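My convention is simple: the sequence line spells out the residues, with the fold written below as integer tokens. I include a record here:
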Amino acid sequence: MRIDHDAAEFPFQQLAAILRERIETGVYPPGRKIPSIIDLVEESGLSTMTVRRAVQVLADEGLVRTVPGRGTFVERR
């Protein structure tokens, strides 16, 4: 995963776009968990707050939902 810190698009927007593409292409299928915040922090090199913001963007779009204590799951369309 590559985040360009010099791009006009904020890092959280870039991460949200990467995750969105993975959802749309079936890498993360409906009803399944996406990687944890900690795993995404390790993979992207971004801060926890930035990763949470990217996941929240996807939640606001209705692509994922977070289940406390369980993780973040791809919504069925």
Notes: The CA atoms of residues 41 and 48 lie 6 Å apart.
